[in-house]
Every structure is written in C-alpha cells, then in structure tokens.
Amino acid sequence: MRNAYKYTYIYLTLTVIFSSCVDQKKFENIGTHEKPNVEFAPNMYHSVAYEPLTQITDTDAGLWLNSNGSDTGEFYNSNPYNPHKMNMREPAANTVRFNNDGFLPYRLPKDCLDYAAKTLVNPLKVNDKTIEDGKILYAKFCAHCHGETGQGDGPVNDALKGVASLTTGSVKDATPGHIFHVITWGKGRMGAHGSQLNQEERWKIVSYVKENLQKAEAQQ
Ligand code: HEC
Predict the structure, then answer these.
(1) Centre of ligand 1 from the C-alpha of residue 200, in Å
(2) CA of 97 to the centre of ligand 1 (A)
(3) Which residue owns the Cα nearest ligand 1 atom 17?
(4) Angle at 191 between CA 189 and CA 192, to 5 degrees
(5) What pLDDT, on a 0 to 100 scale, did the predictor assign at position 100?
(6) Ligand 1 and 142: CB distance under 6 A
(7) Digit-coded pLDDT (tens) for 84-122
(8) From ligand 1's centre to the CA of 154, what distance in Å?
C-alpha cells in the first residue's frame, strides 16, 4: 500500500513538472506547412525550384524561417499569373500531342532485339484497313530503300548498296516483334525510325510487311 502512495506521488509530480514545460499552442496545426514541429533542413522538403504541378500560394508559408527580410515566406512558390494551381503553363489551345497513339512508351533498348523478337505481339487488329494504312506508310518510309515489293531494290539501294530484302533469307521469317524493333531503332546500316513513326504506325507497317509483302512473295 505504501508503494502505491509512493508511485502516485511520483507520477503526479512528474505530470506537473512536464506539463508545465509544454506550450500547447505549439501543437496546433502540427504537420502542416504553416507549423511543422521540427523540420531538419527544410530545403530538402520544400523545393527551392518551382514545382511544375503545384503551387504554394500562401505568402506566409515558411515566414518564420526567413532571414533575408523579404515579406514572403521561404516556401512561397507560385506564379501568380497562372490561372490554374500549377506553376507550369498548360499547352496552347488545340495543341496536338505528339505520339497521340495511346500506347505506353516503348522502353526496350536497342540491344534487346532478340527479346523483342520473341516477346512482342502486334497489338493491332490486322484487317484490310490496317494493311492498307501500312501500305501507305511503307511507301513513304521504307520503299525508297527496300523497294515497292520489299526486295531491297529501291532507288536508294543504288547508292547505299546492301539494303536487306524483306522477302527472302532470315528476314522473311522474322517475327512481327523483330521488324517492329528494327523500325524503331534501326539495325546495322539502317537508321532508326522511332522518332518519325509512332507505335501504331510502326505496327501498321509490320502488318503490311508480314501479311502482304512476305505472303505475296511466298505465293510466287
Ligand atoms: C535509308 C534506307 C532505309 C530505309 C528508309 C529503311 N531501311 Fe530497313 N534496312 C536498310 C538497310 C541498309 C538494311 C540492312 C541493315 C544491315 O544489316 O546492315 C535494312 C534492314 C532492314 C530489316 C532487316 C533487319 C535484320 O534483322 O536483318 C528490316 C526488317 C527492315 N530493314 C525494315 C524496314 C522498314 C519496315 C522500313 C520502313 C519503316 C525500313 N526498313 C526503312 C535500309 C533502310
């Protein structure tokens, strides 16, 4: 029983001592920009550079940290002329997105040709329309080297020499993924076409090469 009195006494004393040390007001709004409790090296959390997608419009945010005498807080970070809550400007009206084919970015690097050849599947429905579109694109982007029928006999071959035939040898049996990867990155003496044709267009060309050029050759 005496122990119980003793501990109660110690507990009460400590409570009085410690509670008098705490400034309750300090804990209001804690964890907000206005009043973080302890923030070590705040510049690591609050970007000095303007964040593109957000703004801190409160001119007082971080004011208590100011040592430079300005009347806006250290964390104030906003372009007041923007009509929306971002520092970045929105694209001009009617801007057309480059690569607007709805595909995720193609991330396989150039040296992954074998992997691409084995794993990629043509995501398009291969029908007459796809092949017809592919034919037009092939005429614009490939035929001057590879020739209209894909035999490597386009006019540029006269100068370049050694343009591969798409209808014979190993290329004849190349998988759609192989051809797609070669169009994207180029191979050997052929340059990359990934920046000129979006993924949908590349797959359309692949469809045309596989379903038309290579089949036409096989039937002869
Ligand atoms: C400037 C000329 C040129 C253009 C344009 C061109 N190619 Fe090529 N292509 C080549 C040459 C040269 C090679 C042989 C590359 C080598 O092995 O050095 C080749 C090789 C290829 C190969 C065989 C790759 C392999 O595995 O051996 C494919 C498939 C191919 N091209 C498809 C295309 C398609 C589809 C287009 C159109 C988007 C295209 N090329 C546009 C010059 C061209």
Answers:
(1) 18
(2) 28
(3) 188
(4) 140
(5) 63
(6) yes
(7) 888 888 888 887 766 667 788 898 999 999 999 999 999
(8) 11
HSE-CB at 21 with a 13 A cutoff on CA atoms is: 5
Distance of CA 64 to the CA centre of its chain: 38
pLDDT of residue 36: 58
Q: Ligand 1 in contact with 116 (CB < 6 A)?
A: no
**50 vs 186, residue with greater confidence:** 186
Percent of the chain surpassing pLDDT 70: 83
Report the distance separating Cα 113 and Cα 177, nearest Å.
8
Longest Cα pair distance anywhere in the chain, in angstroms?
A: 109
Rounded Cα distance, 110 and 192, in Å:
10
How many residues are given for the chain? 220
pLDDT in tens, 189-214: 999 999 999 999 999 999 999 999 99
Q: Find out whether the beta carbon of 206 lies less than 6 Å from any atom of ligand 1.
A: no
Q: How far is the CA of 131 from the centre of ligand 1 (A)?
A: 19
Cβ-based neighbours of 84, under 8 Å, separated by 6 or more: 90
Q: Is the CB of 61 under 6 A from ligand 1?
A: no
Rounded Cα–Cα distance for residues 167 and 149 (Å): 8
The closest-lying atom of ligand 1 relative to the alpha carbon of residue 157 is 2
